[in-house]
Design a protein that fits this description.
6-hairpin_glycosidase_sf, globular, Glycosyltransferase, 52% helix, glycosidase, Mannan-1_6-alpha_mannosidase, signal, 448 residues, 3 strands, membrane, binds 2-acetamido-2-deoxy-beta-D-glucopyranose
Length: 448
Amino acid sequence: MVQFKRSLSLVWLCILQSTIAIDVDWGDSNSVKDAAATIAAGMMSYYVGNQYGQTPGILPGPYYWWEAGAMWGAMIDYWHYTNDTTYNDLTMQGLQWQVGPHNDFMPPNASASLGNDDQAFWGMAAMAAAEYKFPNPLQSQPSWLSLAQAVFNEQMGRWDTQYCNGGIRWQIYQITGYDLKNTISNGCFFNLASRLARYTNDDLYAQWAEKAWNWLWDIGLIDKNYNVYDNTEADRLNCTTIDHTQWSYNAGTLLMGASTMWNYTQSDVWKNRTSNLLSTIVFDYFPDGIMKDVCEQHNACNVDQHSFKAYLSRWMAATTQMAPFTYDIIAPLLLSSAKAACAQCTGAPTGNVCGLKWYLNGTWDGTAGVGQQMAALEVVLGTMVGHVTPAVTNTTGGNSPSNPTAGYNASNIPPGAVVTPATKADRAGAWLLTALFSLATLYAWMRI
Ligand SMILES: *[C@@H]1O[C@H](CO)[C@@H](O)[C@H](O)[C@H]1NC(C)=O
Ligand SMILES: *[C@@H]1O[C@H](CO)[C@@H](O)[C@H](O)[C@H]1NC(C)=O
Ligand SMILES: *[C@@H]1O[C@H](CO)[C@@H](O)[C@H](O)[C@H]1NC(C)=O
Ligand SMILES: *[C@@H]1O[C@H](CO)[C@@H](O)[C@H](O)[C@H]1NC(C)=O
Ligand SMILES: *[C@@H]1O[C@H](CO)[C@@H](O)[C@H](O)[C@H]1NC(C)=O
Ligand SMILES: *[C@@H]1O[C@H](CO)[C@@H](O)[C@H](O)[C@H]1NC(C)=O
Ligand SMILES: *[C@@H]1O[C@H](CO)[C@@H](O)[C@H](O)[C@H]1NC(C)=O
Ligand SMILES: *[C@@H]1O[C@H](CO)[C@@H](O)[C@H](O)[C@H]1NC(C)=O
């Protein structure tokens, strides 16, 4: 009897799952939009910043401040790809609430764990708002473009030639990780610079993009086969050793930056860099045509890492518009990954919660979170990239007001400024995990 009841409930569970899983007719954009709406709602169910007594813009723990910025970027994409304005007010409020006293996405509350990469994810969300013509904020508030410019200007001021002949550091303040120069910080600075160059046609930004790329290349964070590695140690080792961990988002931010530089310069050098990066991305992150980060099969992805495929998806989709010659390679990979992603969005309690292991042939991996939802959302949106308008510039309809000197005068925050953060335990813990994991498992795995 007990046996019988159990198998009956298993059958029931299967029926429940197959009826609730996210079924998509990939040829019908309304069906794809419905899927995106379901996944977006799942993601936004974690957000409570609009509730009484909560802080707008941020996510509750365990999510760090940066991931909320990334999430608003996803919501701008969501609106742009679907025309669904459901979350626009929350997005506007969240982004503007977190601009901080200098309109530069450095709110004091976030200073305990504020990396250049963290600030950049908010800056790139603002950049996307300008590029996609998200509704402009009130005139009393900083424009989307000026927020991106502020982040760029400040990070340009943090370019540090004391060690490694350049590059920006991971952390802004002297907390754990300050001694590292990492690819996501320099890569997002590059990404933002390329997009500001294209949007404003101001070549200063392009020159910095070039400089950041050259530095990543010279140090070996991009190798001659266009593998993209994670970080290098500055203060003690002068960037002579490389942590060879490979994450999808590092390669992704460079891909979009390179394709944007191609779009801006139309130089074969950037075309070549774009296609070489793309070939290596296909090889490194699409085993069997399904996007995958290396931590997945080791059950070792941390909270941050659960969201990385969101950004590779976002940036690959944008790349097809900046460099249309990449479309025929990227579009099928986004589609096969999106199909795999949706097939496994069968998790409890709603029956459409997404996990991260898209390669599991439709089996939910038992995990849930903002990162998992965001990754599935961005890859599903990416399948529609052929039908949406590309990023504008200030000569093709972009009307976000420019402020080329936006940001807190960088000379007031000298590189290496010492602050005592409220608490650094969390961030240090996350860093330690990443470091241990990368040294032990990953390095070995990548070399098999
Ligand atoms: C969104 O709306 C605009 C203007 O109404 C339209 O041109 C565009 O095709 C729509 N995009 C999508 C993805 O439905
Ligand atoms: C900073 O934290 C305080 C206290 O939680 C909150 O009231 C305020 O809105 C926060 N500011 C920002 C920009 O998040
Ligand atoms: C540090 O590395 C840079 C290149 O990455 C090199 O130009 C510089 O000479 C090195 N400095 C020292 C002290 O080794
Ligand atoms: C675009 O932005 C650049 C840099 O701010 C400015 O020089 C130029 O006048 C702008 N063009 C338009 C059409 O607004
Ligand atoms: C393009 O990339 C290939 C492979 O890395 C390289 O051999 C070739 O010299 C590059 N060509 C140009 C024009 O940069
Ligand atoms: C630059 O991007 C626009 C918008 O997607 C596209 O129409 C154009 O062909 C691209 N330019 C080049 C050189 O690829
Ligand atoms: C998924 O299915 C394919 C084809 O049936 C099979 O080759 C592969 O091993 C399966 N993967 C997993 C993780 O079950
Ligand atoms: C920043 O401040 C310094 C010193 O006060 C000044 O010389 C410089 O012109 C300022 N730069 C900008 C961009 O405002």
